[in-house]
Amino acid sequence: xxxxxxxxxxxxxxxxxxxxxxxxxxxxxxxxxxxxxxxxxxxxxxxxxxxxxxxxxxxxxxxxxxxxxxxxxxxxxxxxxxxxxxxxxxxxxxxxxxxxxxxxxxxxxxxxxxxxxxxxxxxxxxxxxxxxxxxxxxxxxxxxxxxxxxxxxxxxxxxxxxxxxxxxxxxxxxxxxxxxxxxxxxxxxxxxxxxxxxxxxxxxxxxxxxxxxxxxxxxxxxxxxxxxxxxxxxxxxxxxxxxxxxxxxxxxxxxxxxxxxxxxxxxxxxxxxxxxxxxxxxxxxxxxxxxxxxxxxxxxxxxxxxxxxxxxxxxxxxxxxxxxxxxxxxxxxxxxxxxxxxxxxxxxxxxxxxxxxxxxxxxxxxxxxxxxxxxxxxxxxxxxxxxxxxxxxxxxxxxxxxxxxxxxxxxxxxxxxxxxxxxxxxxxxxxxxxxxxxxxxxxxxxxxxxxxxxxxxxxxxxxxxxxxxxxxxxxxxxxxxxxxxxxxxxxxxxxxxxxxxxxxxxxxxxxxxxxxxx
Length: 518
Known about the structure:
CATH class of the largest domain: Mainly Beta
Distance between the termini: 26 Å
């Protein structure tokens, strides 16, 4: 199974390195053998008799001249120009603070009792971890990944000429995995410029530079494979996917286009083994510019806060929420809940509203909403375009400051649901409120049972879910829920239930024409 891994390297003991080299040698031999076998099989498949061998006259045949092959790009001039601004980063941290992302683990892992496997006492010593970065101003401002310098006791930067400079961490942002460092030199330092990542196109040539496996100044080339990737790394995922080889230690290094501008920060790979398989991810430069500017100014990132949990608009929900046919499937962010006293609550936003734009910028899904709101400055007034009860509406919201414990405006989504309906509901008693850990003022109906094969089961409704609303209307008990469900089923032949599950609010669409297949 493939796993997502940060391209950050933790240095291992020499014995482990030797082991890795031997493993690689064996793996390479196996690959060579497989290729040779394939060549032999191909040879047999093509071994047919020629007309001359068969005593026949060979037919006259015109062989077309080979087409002129386009020359591959030469990146040598580009590399010479930008390489002086790419740095290697070495951090020192406690051995107990490292994670399991390093490609070559220690041959003496910590045992549960604090002893190494050979029975010798374990020593908590400082170890080194390595990553990459790049200089973005002549006064020594450096961009890298947060996970490269997280919990570092000290940070040392090695320039391309081999000189070493101690670095100070100016600020870090865990949500985007970015960090900004500063070094002091007695002369202006070479630097590179952050470009416009929105102009990057799939198929475009790019090069990645960095310090993979401690091999500083390494260059790899490839193309942009895709844009806008969400890999589950954070609330603002919008990665550029590339096939340029990125390995552990490349974390924080720059991704260049052919004009020498930085369009991304190499951050993660998708790999079953820890090595590159041609699927790497870079944080887009447009996001990097915003984060770096905030950190340089104040040491931290300030983000806007709206105060809603949102989910995608599933196809089954479109009919249940009476969304207009002109709105494409999956477009917009459906508000599942609104935080009390939040900017959204003060502006009158409600569960069931579908946000389609923020200040004229289209919102296709909750991820778009999270990025658009986070980019706004606290105190700014934002125009929220939405659909409410099937009709367009607009609300003006005064954006607040997002605190560290507030998540992005992007919530968890539940599944979908349906007709007959296949639910047994019971009142939300004080005992059930305590059992489900709900506030004393909570109202709704508890799902006591779900009929096997029913639309409710197909939608993913489960016993213990608390129905708090049907469509945009709140309900205070089983009778109100049944009445609202029947009304919605008659009008739309689909029902949108607003439920609480493990404390999280979400809409679930029940398609009354659908039953469970299994």
